[in-house]
Amino acid sequence: MPSPPVSFRLVSRPDPLQLIEAVVDHWESRLRERLELREPKPLGLATGRTMEPFYRQLIDRLRGWTEAERQRLIEGWLSFNLDEYVGVDSGSAASFAATMQRCLGDALGLPPAQLRLPDGAAPDPDGEARRYALALERAGGLGVQLLGLGGNGHVGFNEPPCGADTRCRVVQLSHATRIQNAAAFGGDPQRVPPQAITLGIAEILQAEEIHLVVTGVGKALILARLLRGEATPDLPASWLGSHPRVHLWADAAALSADAVSGM
Questions:
Q1: Mean pLDDT of residues grouped by 10 in the chain (263 residues)?
Q2: Cys-Cys link to 5, which of 28, 63, 143, 229 (CB 3.0-4.6 A)?
Q3: pLDDT digits (tens, 9 = 90+) for 158-168
Q4: How far is the C-alpha of 106 from the C-alpha of 108, rounded, in Å?
Q5: Catalytic residue list
Q6: Is 103 helix (H, G, I), strand (E, B) or coil?
């Protein structure tokens, strides 16, 4: 297996459930630290199949906190999600807004003002991207950022090719990404919106700490490319190598020696 870029702190577990448990362990400690901060930076959140078990385990873990601790966490909660589909209302079951409400907001009692996402139904998507970026900037930028890895190397919806200086904007989704996200649209890639609003690589790199979670043999080839350490626009996630605090969480399948040797 190739060595990760110097800044990546690689943590591996045999299976995805054990891996997610380890990620939740770390995030729980960060959330406890957050209770002691006067002005904590917003959390950076993500959606996707990899993240749903993370939110389930996190909610279970928070149920073990005292009522006073949970209340303090909720009162001080502010998070910004990476992205949202253009043309999809937050009330649609396929929207990331609905996903976040279902996975996190309902359980914690978080209103939209504290669980923020771009407005996919905004009449001016480019203007909404600028508004969202400004809202994040005014909130102090990202503290701890959660990321998944797309099959083509995207993080957020930053599709290749993508430079390190890209900021929040409207992007055109690749056919591969629409296939990957088709499950929420009845399995039909053509029903997946062709555009999305996403935070850019620049905003992600400004986070204080980044957690990249990768599971499954389907991500092994792209993860192997990432572990080579070469920064390139063709692999947007590779820009993370310039960040001083990146935690790379990967299960055994994602680090599959067979998959790596078969490249």
A1: 70 97 98 95 95 97 97 97 97 96 96 96 98 98 98 97 98 96 95 98 98 97 92 97 96 77 43
A2: 229
A3: 999 999 999 99
A4: 6
A5: 83, 152, 154, 159
A6: helix
Backbone angles phi, psi at 161, to 5 degrees: -80, 150
d(CA 189, CA 40): 39
pLDDT tens digits for 169-223?
Answer: 999 999 999 999 999 999 999 999 999 999 999 999 999 999 999 999 999 999 9
Instruction: Specify the amino acid at residue 15.
Output: D
Share in percent of the chain as helix, strand, coil (round to 5): 40, 15, 40
Q: Strand 169-172 relative to strand 195-198: parallel, antiparallel, unpaired?
A: antiparallel
SS3 112: coil
Strand 115-116 and strand 83-85: pairing?
Answer: unpaired
Measured CA to CA, the distance from residue 111 to residue 198 in angstroms comes to: 21
E strand or H helix at 80, and its extent?
strand 79-81
Q: Give the pLDDT score at 229.
A: 83
Helical (H) or strand (E) element with 258: helix 257-261
Query: Residue 76: what pLDDT?
Result: 96
Tokens 């978080």 identify what position? 110
* Confidence (pLDDT) at 1: 52
Residue 180 tokens, joined: 């990957």
Main-chain dihedrals φ then ψ at residue 193, nearest 5 degrees? -55, 140
Edge-to-edge order in the sheet of strand 169-172: 83-85, 195-198, 169-172
What single-letter DSSP state applies at residue 104?
A: I
Measured in residues, the chain has a length of: 263
pLDDT of residue 6: 56
Say if residues 195 and 231 touch (Cβ distance below 8 Å): no
